[in-house]
Amino acid sequence: MTNPDGGTIIQERTDADLRYDEGDHERFAHYVPKDQLMEAMVNGTAIRALCGKLWVPSRDPERFPICPECKEIHENMLGD
Questions:
Q1: CA–CA separation, 53 vs 69, rounded Å?
Q2: Rounded Cα gap, residues 63 and 25, in angstroms
Q3: Greatest CA span in the chain, whole angstroms?
Q4: Which InterPro entries does this one have (predicted)?
């Protein structure tokens, strides 16, 4: 946006971009071993989450809610 006086007006955008790729509405961030996650992302190989889901990780997990099943299993593991 340009100011008629020759300056620039900065307009802060307060809304977040919540658009997801097709099918992302059913996605969760899953618990997996970090070393296996890095290997799977680099090599494009499948990895199994605590909940049993097998997939090839390719998206930023920060964009999705944590899988409730993985979370429960992880909490039970920490409680032992």
A1: 10
A2: 11
A3: 67
A4: DUF3039
Q: What is the pTM of this model?
A: 0.63
**Amino acid, res. 69:** E
20: three-class secondary structure by DSSP: coil
Q: What is the pLDDT of residues 3-15, one digit of tens each?
A: 455 555 554 544 4
Residue 26, SS3 per DSSP: helix
CB count, 10 Å around CB of 63? 13
Measure the CA–CA gap between 21 and 36, rounded to whole angstroms. 24
- Beta strands 54-55 and 47-48: pairing type? antiparallel
Pairwise CA distance, residues 77 & 80, whole Å = 6
Q: Tokens 């997996």 belong to which residue?
A: 32
